Amino acid sequence: MSFFKRIATPLIQRGIPVIPVNPGEKKCTLEKWQDRAQLGPAMIDFWDEENPAYNVGCVAYTTPGGICILDCDVQRLPQRIEAESGHKFEPTLVVKSAGKGCLHVYYRQTARSIAIGNRKVGDLFDFQCNRKYVVGPGSVLAETGKTYTIFQDYEIADFPDWLGDWIESNSRTAKKSAGCKMSPVRDEFDMDDLMDFYGYDWRQMGTWYNFVSECPVAGYQHKSAKLPGFFFDGEDLGWNCWASGCESNGWSAGRVIKALNEKHGTPYPHLIWPDNTMEIVEAGGIGGNFATEAVSNDVSEGAIGGERGNPGKTKTPVKIRLKPRYQALTATGETISSMDGKTWRDSKGRTICVTQQQKR
Ligand SMILES: [Zn+2]
After folding, report:
1. Residue 356 main-chain phi, psi, to 5 deg
2. Angle at 199 between CA 189 and CA 309, to 5 degrees
3. Ligand 1 midpoint to CA 202 (Å)
């Protein structure tokens, strides 16, 4: 049996939806993988034929029978959680990563785990709850030459409530310390892709994605604060420059991205925010007063950007109605001035986003 099939088959037999991951890597470049994880053998055969050297990814979904994974970023995190919570981990499936040798603790979804949702606390853990994956056992990491191995082989246990308490109290603390405006992004948002898009030198330090050679808003490197950057914890996106004189201080990530788009000439081509964070502002643009009406009062029958992905599913047509005195401000800060239900344009006629319906 070839490699991919050999490592993927036992996982689907345990009820873990899988995707192919690039050979020897952690990255999955399968388009719309979030919607394409499989539990059936036919697709495993297909991917195996496509490339038998694929690694495997295990995907968390908040569906009945779905799995979620506590993805530890540090050694001995389970011991720390036990000490802090006063509870012991019961047997469940645990996998040791081929990178830092940290543990992936697998659980079946419960109401509690679903309520928690995805969490990321930089350099400590990720709670992969919905449309997230971890690299699965049997996969090989070329850079270390090591294999993801099953560390504890038990039936996947239900997610324990006490672990939910620990995750919640620990991720809350981390969020407070970010100290900037934040807004939640779409599940398929790819932070590395956004950072790469603009072509600046950058590095990741935990939950901060720093521009290392210049402040992209100011256009030069501040003397006082040399590492402006985006905060991203897997869920929320924020911005901070820290240089006292920088105009970008206090800006939302969306406003910074709008500025970067203008400098770059081409806007970042992927949707970043889900429709529910779209803001309706009074005509007059970004500086205008934010209206207090709920988005749903002004936008009906679907949502900006529509549903992405999930080929094969029927889409609700995207229809937007706006009161004349309102314009819609997209998540990237572009003001929408025209839309035909498929293509949205800003005041200069540039395409802001093309909905799924357009592409199909
Ligand atoms: Zn700055």
Report:
1. -55, -35
2. 25
3. 14
Residue 248 Cα to ligand 1 midpoint, Å, equals 6
Q: Who has greater pLDDT, 105 or 307? A: 105
| CA of residue 312 to ligand 1 center, whole Å | 45
200 Cα: distance to centroid of ligand 1 (angstroms): 14
Task: State in Å: Cα 228 to ligand 1 middle.
Answer: 6
Q: How many domains does the chain have?
A: 3
Q: In angstroms, rounded to a whole number, what is the distance separating the alpha carbons of residues 215 and 226?
A: 8
Residue 272 lies in a domain: no
pTM above 0.85, yes or no: no
Q: Give residue 203's domain range.
A: 183-264
Nearest CA to 56 among 2, 102, 122, 121? 2
Contact in structure between 185 and 236 (CB atoms under 8 Å): yes
Query: Is the same domain home to 150 and 216?
Result: no
Give the Å distance between the CA of 51 and the centre of ligand 1.
45
Q: Name residue 212's amino acid.
A: V
Q: What is the pLDDT of residues 151-175, one digit of tens each?
A: 999 999 999 999 999 999 888 644 5
Residue 201 lies in a domain: yes
CA of 178 to the centre of ligand 1 (A): 17
Residue 127 sits in the same domain as residue 218 = no
Examine the fold and report which residue of 176, 194, 218 is the final residue of a domain before the chain moves on: 176
CA of 217 to the centre of ligand 1 (A): 6
Q: Are residues 128 and 213 in the same domain?
A: no
Structural domain ending residue among the three candidates 208, 231, 264:
264
Q: Considering the domain boundaries, does residue 271 fall inside one?
A: no
Q: Are residues 34 and 126 in the same domain?
A: yes
CA 316 to centroid of chain Cα atoms: 24
Between the CA of 219 and the centroid of ligand 1 the distance, in Å, is 8
Burial class (CB in 10 A: 0-12, 13-18, 19+), 313: exposed
The residue type at 69: I
Q: Verify that 187 and 172 share a domain, yes or no.
A: no
Residue type, 108: R
Q: Which of 303, 281, 283, 276 is nearest to 291 (CA)?
A: 281
Q: How many C-beta atoms surround the C-beta of residue 291 within 10 A?
A: 16
pLDDT at position 330: 47
